[in-house]
Design goal:
The chain is mainly alpha-helical. About 50% of the residues lie in helices and about 0% in strands. The chain has three helices and no strands.
């Protein structure tokens, strides 16, 4: 009975939120992004782009 009631409540509450950076990183993601931008502008951080290749491990 409880499982059925939980399903009804979930449907009534609407669809889940769309996946975005705020959902992944939490409610402080706006502050994280602002801090990142500030540090990039001041030259304290730099962007590094790399491509890696997976190689099998020799066991």
């Amino acid at each position: 009975m409880t499982d059925d009631l939980d399903r009804v409540r979930l449907r009534a509450s609407g669809p889940p939120p769309s996946l975005n950076l705020g959902v992944v990183m939490g409610s402080g993601s706006r502050n994280y992004a602002a801090n990142l931008g500030h540090n990039l502008l001041e030259g304290r951080l730099r962007i590094l782009t790399a491509v890696f290749e997976a190689v099998p491990a020799n066991l």
